[in-house]
Design a protein that fits this description.
With 478 residues, the protein is of the alpha+beta class. It is built from 12 helices and 19 strands.
Length: 478
């Protein structure tokens, strides 16, 4: 690492931790001095405009106004992203060389996520729950959301040094057994499962709290159902090692969750802990006693200690000075000149060869140009008087290919098939379960003549209602 990189990656003496939600903001300004760190400001404020929708400039100005009102002047910030914008995918890993793992994960991300991998920022976490069995958890955030958030922070005169997950900072992946972590976020509940030094699951339980007035009612039955579903989807060997459920936060909502889930999860062997204060063990500096276990404080402490977050969604930035220094380094100057000269020679030869080929083909074209003009005139007349109807039977071909993609046992059925003139096909139907739906989707994606398969809607558990659309490239396609 160069001196420039070391200077850029210094933790610094102060940092601003932000937990940005859709309707509220939690900000913690942390300053380090004399072997410890002081919490200068710790506030939770409502947001008038959602930073993830609407005008980013207006959202940034409103954010700056609230930070100024709270007396926050720090510009270096680390942001805890809301978990509901994060896509999660867990998949088994075969025995492959370490060098080929990144390519495999990229292929699986392209198959598993509903968006193009180039439009996502993907982070991975690999675990080995039992010997010889490896699993990877892929977490992805749409690149458009990150770019929008950067505009909001720039309008608020903030300089982000990290965009990460607060839940992973509160409960980092460790090798001390499995932990199911819960954090209330408004009316929802964020859930994370860590095991074998990796994140095995990350999701949001919607409508965990009910009611219109404070304090909101906690729907323990709904949360227990979602916990059982989440544990049932985990790889073999993970559930058996989960013995602890930790509810983070000093709020009344966190206390209610711990009190109501504790007696209900005790028969299953899960012990519920309410973590009100941030754990102080293993920190590089001292914090004030009873520092709240909040996402904003957790990411700020990790940034101030110089720890790399478990998941980093901030795109890398290469300064102009770094580009200049790497390009014109004295050790590389001679090699760079030789490479540039070789490339220039190859380009000149390529252009010369291309020009020779153009001359040759132009001479051949001059010989047949008159005959081609006569043929084009005849083709124009043929098209004028040919039958108007389409002999390719496109609709029957589409239905045949769609039928071949459905399982023969009748576990997937189509309700509506819409064939548009531009070659786009929309199919709505039902599947008996998730396995049947995924098998049909994979077969449809690999079918001949079908391309650009997109999932518009998947709803329900059993049965599953789905809507997909694709582009027909077979006979009669556009």
């Amino acid at each position: 690492m160069s001196a420039i990189d070391r200077w850029k990656n210094r933790p610094g003496t102060s940092v601003l931790g932000l937990m940005l939600g859709h309707d509220r903001l939690e900000a913690v300004e942390l300053r380090r001095s004399n072997g410890g760190a002081d919490i200068r400001v710790n506030v939770t404020l409502p947001l008038e405009s959602d930073p993830f929708s609407g005008d980013p400039e207006a959202a940034g100005r409103q954010l700056r106004k609230q930070l100024d009102a709270a007396g926050i002047r720090e510009h270096r910030c680390v942001v805890s992203l809301p978990p509901d914008i994060v896509l999660c995918l867990t998949l088994p890993l075969p025995e492959i060389p370490e060098a080929d793992r990144a390519s495999l994960l990229q292929i699986e991300a392209e198959r598993g996520f509903p968006q193009n991998p180039e439009d996502l920022i993907v982070e991975s976490s690999v675990s080995e729950p039992v010997a010889g069995s490896r699993y990877a958890t892929l977490l992805a955030v749409p690149r458009s959301i990150i770019q929008r958030l950067e505009l909001v922070l720039r309008a608020a005169r903030l300089r982000p040094i990290s965009l990460t997950l607060g839940l992973a900072a509160l409960q980092p992946p460790a090798d001390t057994g499995g932990v199911l972590a819960l954090v209330p976020t408004g009316r929802s509940l964020a859930l994370q499962v860590t095991h074998a030094r990796a994140v095995a699951a990350l999701r949001v339980i919607d409508e965990a709290f009910t009611g219109d007035a404070e304090p909101l009612g906690f729907d323990a039955g709904q949360v227990l159902r979602e916990i059982r579903i989440t544990l049932g989807q985990l790889p073999a060997g993970v559930v058996e090692n989960i013995r602890t459920v930790r509810v983070f936060g000093p709020s009344e909502a966190a206390r209610t969750i711990a009190e109501q889930l504790g007696p209900r999860l005790a028969p299953t062997g899960l012990a519920v802990e309410h973590v009100r204060a941030l754990p102080l063990a293993g920190l590089a500096f001292k914090l004030p006693p009873a520092s709240p276990a909040s996402s904003a404080l957790a990411v700020a402490v990790a940034a101030l200690a110089g720890k790399r977050p478990a998941f980093e969604f901030l795109p890398p930035r290469i300064s102009a000075w770094q580009q200049f220094a790497s390009r014109y380094s004295s050790r590389r100057l001679a090699g760079t000149g030789a490479v540039v000269g070789s490339i220039a020679g190859v380009v000149c030869l390529a252009f010369l060869g291309q020009q020779i080929l153009i001359w040759q083909w132009q001479a051949r074209w001059d010989l047949i140009k008159s005959r081609v003009a006569k043929l084009e005139s005849m083709q124009k007349e043929i098209r004028t008087y040919r039958p108007w109807f389409d002999e390719s039977c496109r609709s029957l071909a589409v239905l045949r290919r769609l039928t071949e993609s459905f399982p023969e046992d009748g576990s997937v059925a189509a309700k509506v098939v819409e064939i548009r003139a531009n070659g786009r096909i929309t199919c709505s139907g039902t599947a008996r379960d998730a396995a049947a739906w995924l098998r049909m989707r994979d077969q449809l994606s690999n079918a001949k003549g079908i391309a650009d398969v997109q999932v518009e809607q998947v709803r329900g558990k059993s049965p599953i209602e789905f809507t997909v659309n694709f582009r027909w490239e077979g006979p009669g396609g556009s």
